[in-house]
Amino acid sequence: MGSLRYNLALILSNILLGVSFSVYVSLLRGALSFEQIFALQLLFSTIVFTPLALSKPNFLRLSLNDFGSIFIVALLVVFGWWYLLIAGASYTNPVDASTITTIGPIFTLITSIIASSRAVRRGEALGMVVAMLGVVVILVDRGRDLIDKGGEGYGNALILCAVVAIAVNTVLITPVLRRHGTVVVMGWYYIIGSLLAMPLLVEVLPQIPHLQLSRLDVAEIGYILLFGSTLPLYLLYVSAEHLTAIHTALYRYIQPIMAATLAVYRGQTTIDRTNIVGAALIFVGMLCVLYFTPRSELATHE
């Protein structure tokens, strides 16, 4: 029953994250800037997790090495993942964004291989190349200018950077999670992130047009704060403590399915050949990597 519980948590997490891509785009196209959404998410998560973390007896019992790991993770999650993800969503569409995030486990494996200094197996290398090709198809087809602001190509490039950040975070934080627990770790990195982002919070939060927000805007902000970030990330971390990378990788394909369904229904985008080819290549590459990587190693590659 325990395994079923964590599988269900992982499924729910990916459903909520998939829906959030459409909600991000909806808010970014009228109600809020990406900096304001980022600030609201960070402040809300800090308010939720700080009391929970403080209630844990081991909150202040971190070793210097563990605190250093959490500090780096705070930078990767808060600024590398959240900030870049929302910034990218302001330029691209929900289907592209959610499809690119499915390559996350590939970068997690690459990071783990580099950290352990082991050789890459031929089958793994083939899978990585195929999956990367899927991302390249999406990036290039949306515009070859991936550096200057203004196009979907740039937005997709930011999404890819966010994926790399969360992949590196996964490798670094897993040992600390197992020593101190999800609540303590998340509490610390929200506190650290809020302190580092304080100048931005002070600047953009007062600029939110509270009186001009529609009921739909308020409902979508509420969704993003609770169901689009705080809850799914918690479920994802808890699941990562108990499940293998096979679950993490395959369940992640729920995100583009949910994002595409909702985005098409709401008229935010359409599904085209680029989406289909890119998703198919990433999926085939992922299966290839999972097939050639021993399960004993996959257990550590969440």
Helical residue percent band: over 70%
Structural classification: mainly alpha
Shape descriptor reads globular
The first-to-last residue Cα distance is: 21 Å
SSE pattern: HHHHHHHHHHHHHH
Largest sheet: none
How many structural units, i.e. domains? 1
What does this structure look like?
This protein is mostly helical and 302 residues long. The protein has one domain (2-298). It is 78% helix and 0% strand. Helix 1 packs antiparallel against helix 4 (94-101). The longest helix has 29 residues, at 152-180. The two termini are 21 Å apart. The mean pLDDT is 86.
Comma- or semicolon-separated keywords:
globular, single chain, 302 residues, 0% strand, mainly alpha
Secondary-structure blueprint:
Blueprint: H1 2-28, H2 34-54, H3 64-89, H4 94-101, H5 104-116, H6 122-141, H7 152-180, H8 182-196, H9 198-204, H10 215-240, H11 245-251, H12 254-265, H13 273-292, H14 295-298
Helix pairs in contact: 1-4, 1-10, 1-12, 2-3, 2-8, 2-10, 3-7, 3-8, 4-7, 4-12, 4-13, 5-7, 6-7, 6-13, 7-8
Brief summary:
This protein has one domain. The chain is built from 14 helices and no strands. It has helices spanning 2-28, 34-54, 64-89, 94-101, 104-116, 122-141, 152-180, 182-196, 198-204, 215-240, 245-251, 254-265, 273-292, 295-298.
